[in-house]
């Protein structure tokens, strides 16, 4: 199977269209198709902070649920929007406010439609995508080798948020252990969550979140070729959001 795995989109729909076009996908239909039958995969965090979160959700729902032509695993922002739609008490900040503002601008019928589509997408998504034959795992914030095959609460927290310690940095961001530094598993782990300027393979893992919503790039990892393809972001550059 040939895949194009796309990093955290965060509502950057125009960049997504540009990237898939650069990857050779055709937009003659309402969704991108590839002449060589390649499939798209998404590492989560489709929404929040960027300008077109609902358009991204609609497209990914179409590809994954309706057409069954793509893979998706949720990120922490996806989880938060799901809890918002369920009526749980969540804080409307850290990016969720942009998605909620888009949602509030819709008619009641449109709100019900996009809510249904996202909840269907989320509820049918695996915690992480494990393609055993390809020796490949796609997980939003990564996954430890000994967690692969598990779906318990501890693994869910790791996959959504990374290897968090419970402590915070002075800016309020969580302290995370560098799990990839110690990864020694056989499957290749493709993940995102933490924005970096440029991705690189390390210990059979690769982080492809190149901070599209913070003015970096939107990046795809082509598998099995192990090639990286990126397009520049149209968003303002926010240097402090990028981790080394």
Can you characterise this structure?
The structure is a single chain. With 244 residues, the protein is an alpha/beta fold. It has helices spanning 13-22, 53-66, 76-85, 96-104, 108-123, 153-161; strands spanning 3-6, 39-42, 70-72, 129-131, 136-138, 164-168, 174-176, 188-191, 205-207, 217-223, 227-232. A five-stranded mixed beta sheet has the order 3-2-1-10-11. It has a four-stranded mixed beta sheet with strand order 4-5-8-9, with no helix packed on it. Helix 2 crosses helix 5 and helix 3 packs across helix 5. The two termini are 32 Å apart.
Brief rundown of the structure:
The protein is of the alpha/beta class.
Q: List low-pLDDT spans.
A: none
Radius of gyration: 17 Å
Order of helices and strands: EHEHEHHHEEHEEEEEE
Q: What is the CA–CA distance across the termini?
A: 32 Å
Order of strands side by side in the largest beta sheet? Answer: 3-2-1-10-11
Give the helix level as a range of percent.
Answer: 25-40%
Number of strands: 11
Proportion of strand residues: 15-25%
SSE arrangement:
Elements: E1 3-6, H1 13-22, E2 39-42, H2 53-66, E3 70-72, H3 76-85, H4 96-104, H5 108-123, E4 129-131, E5 136-138, H6 153-161, E6 164-168, E7 174-176, E8 188-191, E9 205-207, E10 217-223, E11 227-232
Parallel strand pairs: 1-2, 2-3, 5-8, 8-9
Antiparallel strand pairs: 1-10, 4-5, 6-7, 10-11
Helix pairs in contact: 2-5, 3-5
Protein name: Bis(5'-nucleosyl)-tetraphosphatase PrpE
Pfam families: Metallophos (PF00149)
InterPro entries: Ap4A_hydrolase, Calcineurin-like_PHP, Metallo-depent_PP-like, MPP_PrpE-like, Ser/Thr-sp_prot-phosphatase
């Amino acid at each position: 199977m040939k895949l194009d795995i796309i990093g955290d989109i965060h509502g950057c729909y125009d960049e997504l269209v540009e990237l898939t076009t650069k990857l050779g996908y055709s937009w003659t239909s309402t969704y991108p198709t590839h002449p060589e039958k390649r499939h798209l995969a998404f590492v989560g965090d489709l929404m929040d902070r960027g300008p077109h979160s609902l358009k991204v959700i609609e497209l990914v729902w179409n590809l994954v649920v309706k057409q069954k032509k793509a893979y998706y695993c949720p990120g922490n922002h996806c989880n938060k929007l799901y809890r918002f739609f369920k009526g749980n008490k969540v804080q409307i900040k850290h990016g969720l406010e942009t998605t909620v503002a888009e949602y509030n601008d819709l008619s009641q019928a449109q709100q019900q439609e996009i809510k249904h589509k996202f909840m269907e997408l989320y509820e049918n998504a695996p915690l992480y995508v494990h393609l055993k034959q390809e020796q490949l795992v796609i997980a939003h914030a990564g996954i430890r080798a000994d967690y692969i095959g598990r779906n318990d609460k501890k693994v869910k927290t790791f996959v959504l948020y990374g290897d968090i310690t419970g402590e915070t940095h002075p800016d309020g961001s969580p302290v995370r252990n560098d799990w990839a530094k110690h990864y020694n598993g056989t499957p290749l782990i493709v993940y995102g969550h933490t924005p970096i300027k440029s991705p690189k393979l390390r210990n059979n893992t690769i982080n492809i979140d190149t901070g599209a919503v913070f003015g970096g790039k939107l990046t795809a990892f082509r598998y099995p070729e192990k090639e990286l393809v990126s397009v520049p972001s149209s968003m303002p550059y926010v240097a402090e959001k990028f981790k080394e």
